[in-house]
Amino acid sequence: MAGLTESQVASFRENGYLVVPDYLSPAEIESLLAETDTLLNDFSLDSHPLTQFTTGDDDQAEHVGDDYFLNSGDKIRFFFEPDAFTSEPDPLTGRPALIKPKNLAVNKIGHSLHTLSPPFKAISLNEQNAAVAKSLGFMDPRVLQSMVICKQPSIGGAVPSHRDSEFLYTNPPSAVGWWYALQDSGPGNATLGMWKGSHKGRKGGHIARRFVRRADGKGTEFIENDGPSVPKGMEEEKVEEPSDEDLEILTVKAGSLVLIHGNVLHKSEKNTSQKSRYAYTFHVIEGAEGWEYDERNWLQPPEGGFSRLNQS
């Protein structure tokens, strides 16, 4: 199975991201959308803790960190948009009340679709992705944190600018995101915004903070990173921060794959349109000797470790 071309690898190394059109077939897209709809419609609210997803980057909301979230690494669980609820609880149940049907109120589904959902597993743990990982230099690629991000119409929340290795830190950093557009994504529909070249040390591309479990085991927080801040072989010197001139708002057709360097700065805005923006994403980290997955990361490996992306 062929991986990336030399020019694609060069573009990824230069910009920190790469759009690969038509990576999924129309049949695969249809299968994944059908599976997503089934999952959104069939889960029960009866015992759901109504966990809302937020990293608290706006300094107003608390970081997500209940047991439902922290223990989701080997499960399929559902996390709601903060704007999906009324301001006052339901007087009969005492619980927050949804303002939309549950299938239109979910922020994301995670975090082990790549092991527990056959359609998502088929397009995650396959030879094609193994070949791509090999092109990027991975020796023992491991898959983790798979999720469907829904970006529901009018309430799909913004994702503030961040670097993925802040959340899935290895020593040294190694994460790369696989982001599949399941629906067309473009300006006005909460698409990805990428700062070109911002993964490089001289462009401020350091992992300066990390999203971790609190030391007392109660919730999550951001802490200062005191370990290596860039991948092996990258420049450590910090000279300048990325500017808005480097920001590219992507237009991504359904079926395309976006590869995202773990140190590249990126974001997405709130979805104010009337169209959803479904995307499926997972991350790959280096599992070979010489890289260590940190024990304080919010997501911890399941029994048996993270899924190996076998290379033929």
UniProtKB/TrEMBL annotation:
Region of interest called Disordered, as start-end residue ranges on this chain: 225-244
Keyword Protein biosynthesis listed: no
InterPro entries documented for this protein: Phytyl_CoA_dOase-like (IPR008775)
Database matches in Pfam families: PhyH
GO molecular function: dioxygenase activity; metal ion binding
Keywords on record: Dioxygenase, Iron, Metal-binding, Oxidoreductase
Cofactors, names only: Fe cation
Family according to the record: Belongs to the PhyH family.
Protein name, entry field: Phytanoyl-CoA dioxygenase domain-containing protein 1
Source organism (scientific name): Penicillium cataractarum
